Amino acid sequence: MFGYEEHPYGFYTMAILAVILVGLLYGFFIAIICGQRINERHYHVLAKQELTKEYVVESRDENKNLPELGPAHVKELRMLGLFTELDYEHEL
């Protein structure tokens, strides 16, 4: 009907190009997902490094007049899993 019996090369070429296109799209999708995960982990590590530079560790037994943490700092510590209510109660 369309002349594929005589020259099937066009049909095969189109099929191969379609498979390559689907493969490339799938590859880009996977690359974007991997890139987002790498970026999240990198941000998490940088946030921890920033916190370790910002705070000075002091002994609670020696210094009873420790300043309270600001709400922004408490929120960031909770997001990183480094702050619990027990730590806060012990600080008071």
Characterise the protein shown here.
By secondary structure, this protein is mainly alpha-helical. It has 2 domains: 1-54; 59-92, no CATH class. Helix content is 67%, strand content 0%. It contains 3 helices and no strands. The chain is rod-shaped, with a radius of gyration of 29 Å. It starts with 8 loop residues before the first helix and ends with a helix. The relative contact order is 0.06. The mean pLDDT is 80.
Annotate the secondary structure layout.
Layout: H1 9-54, H2 71-79, H3 85-91
Number of domains: 2
What is Rg?
29 Å
Q: Approximately how much helix is present in the residues?
A: 55-70%
- Mean pLDDT, to the nearest integer, reads 80
The fraction of residues in strands falls at: under 5%
Low-confidence stretches: none
Total beta-strand segments: 0
Cα separation of the termini: 86 Å
H/E element sequence:
HHH
Oligomer: single chain
Biggest β-sheet strands, sense, barrel: none
Q: Counting H and I runs of at least 4 residues, what is the number of helices?
A: 3
Global structural class: mainly alpha
How would the global form be characterised? rod-shaped
Keywords:
Putative E3 ubiquitin-protein ligase MARCH8; 2 domains; transmembrane; membrane; mainly alpha; 92 residues; transmembrane helix
